Amino acid sequence: MREPRDRSPVGGRSFFLELAPDVLVDYSKIGHGKNIVTRYNGLVSRRRPGASRVRPVDYWMLAELRYHIRRFLRTREIAARAAGIEPQHYLLLLQAKGLEGRQPVTLGTLAERLQLRHHSTVELVDRLARRGLVDRIADQCDRRTVRVELTAAGEAILKRLALQSRSERRAEGPALVAALRRLMRSARRDARPRR
């Protein structure tokens, strides 16, 4: 960290201290009879001309987006439990079916798609295999690789949940998309240089 520089003119009219590259503190505006904490808290700072200004964070917009995402996910969690499986099991079935025919459905791929650690994904697959919803298949070329395939029972549960999801997407989707669009417009505005 750089040492603060004294920016006071020779005549001594103002005493500035540079706290950061773009913040100058005018000590001439601090009362001298106050204790150090009160003086520190009472500093009047000003930005250098040309320094970038940080726009305030729009917490409402971020909270609104998170609310709609959570609401959207919560309806899927409730539907999964009503179908007799846990929400993470539903997500694993969905990822396995979605990847089918596009790339190998391996434990590593599922771990990445679910954003879980490998051993957690192995445990999920083991639970689903015990319930007869997926099969673990050793790869013929590389015996260390395990592929995951849905069974007929797994496909039936997933199909029922996917059909329910259509109506929920129509109901919850527009609010989620609107919140995301507001956030993206704000991000584009923040990316433009201020004058």
Keyword list:
195 residues; mainly alpha; Arc Repressor Mutant, subunit A; 3-stranded antiparallel sheet; two-stranded antiparallel ribbon; 6 helices
Backbone structural class: mainly alpha
Assembly state: single chain
What letter string, H or E per element, gives the SSE order? Answer: EEHEHHHHEEH
Radius of gyration: 29 Å
For the sheet with most strands, the description reads: 3 strands, antiparallel
Strand order of the largest sheet: 1-2-3
Tell me the domain tally: 2
Number of strands: 5
| Mean model confidence by pLDDT | 77
Q: Give unreliable regions as ranges.
A: 6-20
User: What is the terminal-to-terminal distance?
Assistant: 30 Å
* Continuous helix count: 6
Strand content: 5-15%
Here the CATH topology of the largest domain equals Arc Repressor Mutant, subunit A
Supply the CATH superfamily name of the largest domain: Winged helix-like DNA-binding domain superfamily/Winged helix DNA-binding domain
Query: What's the CATH first level of the largest domain?
Result: Mainly Alpha
Please tell me the CATH architecture of the largest domain by its name.
Answer: Orthogonal Bundle
The helix content is 40-55%
Principal-axes shape call: globular
